[in-house]
Amino acid sequence: MKLGYVGVGSMGGALATRLCSSHQVDVFDLSATAVAKLEAEGAKGLPSARDVGAANDIVFICLQTSDQVRKAIFGENGIAAGMKPGGMIVDQTTGDAFQTRAMAAELEAMGIDLIDVPVSGGPQYAIAGTIALMAGGSDAQFARIKPVLETISPNIFHCGPVGSGHVMKVTNNLLAASQRLLTFEVVALAVKNGLNPKTVVEAMLKGSGRNYVLDVTFQRHILPGKLHQGFTLGLMHKDVKLATKLAADSEVPLLIGGLVDEYYGAIINDLGADAEVNMALRYIEDAAGAHVCPEGASADPDA
What residues sit in the active site (predicted)? Predict the structure, then answer.
């Protein structure tokens, strides 16, 4: 079984690195630097997505949007132009379930399978081999890809037919995005009223408010003053918008989710879409008149 990977940036690169530990992997990315990093892990860089499709039975892809995925698959030098019937494309992008299903139908007519397997946990968990994998595809498709996915992480969930992985991912990310802002607000409230942020986090981790933001974001990033977590406000807002679009397309009211969407929009208007996601705490600190981050805290990844 020959494997390829298209889109080896921060997340795709981490996932492809896991695959390289047990497979020969052909890779393509618009960034020569990203490809070089994977070549150092034993991968082979190829000139185009089409070349990766032509050379492999299964091609993974991880980009920022479903529109980019469509271009990478169906474009002039896309994966589908090179892939033979019987091939499989594994979409690890955080994408739009409705677009994914449409692409799967187009590829099915070409004799190519598409399965969506987005991930949750961040690049550090991908590298560690503990990231969550959320798969959408038929039972037969899932059975085919599962042994390969197990080389990335044992935490694999078959969520249902194609598109179900993306449904799982965007609903998870809406919950995570909501928890982040609410947790930032609540800790700022406590600090404004005289509490030490470290004490607040330690107490809440033993109480009913415990969540990922307290357990990971605060303990590993906020309290030590290293705000960089490898994710931007713009990407978080994109994921929230995917969830609110899913709700609209499914005719499901999403009142709190809608407010979270607007909240991220307001923060981005102030800080910019490229700002590190934890800089949202700076926005909340300014509004509250409270200082949660230690003096000298930085979002610089090299700090």
Answer: 169
